[in-house]
Amino acid sequence: MTPPNRPSQHALADTFRALHADPAGFLIPNPWDAGTARLLAHLGFRALASTSAGFSFGRGHADRSVPRGPLLAHLVELTAATALPVSADLENGFGDAPSTVAETIRLAAAAGVVGGSIEDATGRADAPLYDIPFAAERIRAAVEAARALPFPFTLTARAENFFIGRGDLADTIRRLQAYQEAGADVLFAPGISRTEDIATLLREVDRPVNVLLGAPGMSVDAPTLFAMGVRRVSVGGSLARAALGAFLRAATELRDRGTTDYTRDAVSGKELNRLFG
Fold it and tell me: N or C: the chain end with fewer CB closer than 10 Å?
């Protein structure tokens, strides 16, 4: 059910764009269904972002294995669940061709989101990243599609080096600089974790930077990242993985011991009925 006080998509887009202009920065957590979106809104977060990992896991699939159609239906549910701006994890645009990436942007906007990210990972083991010129062409196509929309869609360009295990900071910076020149509004290198690498990245680009909190090897917290100049901090699939971890521990207790001690940490049905009522 769409909240009766949900602002227009244009108003939400303006709000989302303004958050990136605030030097104090903001947290953008990642729900994986309508229920978790509503809970995060209840907690006072100012914007939300989808997570391909959390959505895929919730459907019983591996990350990046759900086609574009079900993802778009998922985005409709997320955007209808709260009165907050929602940005979408659009993976690599669901195809190599720049025209496919542009179509994904248009379809995501029609689903109700006010922003989205496009990554430069191919999904192929033999050539895991697009070459920089072609990757930038794909971002340029996404930017052109975004600029043709009747509201300011915030496009995030992702450089996946660190996320796929290639800790090449120099190449990551070259990629993000190329995506900046292609018109991306926000830059994102998921998996980057060392504060000195983040500081270097911030010096080398002049767009708002998103950092993924909780990457392996990362010990820095969100307030420290904001003090460094990071404008946006997300958590990816970590909330979904935390919830599924609790589920597995509870189910294992039930199987092995036949007990329900796990209910001590469970939220009550009464509280959930109150929040969702």
Answer: C
Q: Does residue 187 contact residue 205 with C-beta atoms inside 8 Å?
A: yes
Q: For the chain, how far is it from start to end, CA to CA, in angstroms?
A: 11
Distance CA 12, CA 112 (A): 10
Phi, psi of 156 (to 5 degrees): -105, 130
Q: Which residues contact 256 (CB under 8 A, 6 or more apart)?
A: none
Strand order in the sheet with 26-28: 26-28, 232-234, 209-212, 186-188, 154-158, 115-119, 86-89, 48-49
pLDDT band, very low/low/confident/very high, at 214 (cuts 50, 70, 90): confident
**Residues 89, 4: Cα–Cα separation, whole Å:** 26
DSSP 210: E
- Residues 85-114: pLDDT tens digits? 999 999 999 999 999 999 999 999 999 999
Residue 4 tokens read as 């009766």
Place of tokens 């950092």: 211
3-state secondary structure of 9: helix
Q: Which residue blocks in 59-154 are alpha helix, DSSP H?
A: 68-81, 98-110, 132-147
| Residues in CB range of 169: below 8 A, 6 or more apart | 161, 192, 197, 200, 201
Phi, psi of 221 (to 5 degrees): -105, 175
Beta strands in the chain (DSSP E): 26-28, 48-49, 86-89, 115-119, 154-158, 186-188, 209-212, 232-234
In 111-221, which ranges are continuous DSSP H helix? Answer: 132-147, 169-181, 195-204
Contacts of the segment 128-133: beta carbons below 8 A, 24+ positions apart: 128/160, 128/164, 128/166, 129/160, 129/161, 129/164, 129/166, 130/96, 132/174, 132/175, 132/178, 133/178
Has this prediction a pTM greater than 0.85? yes
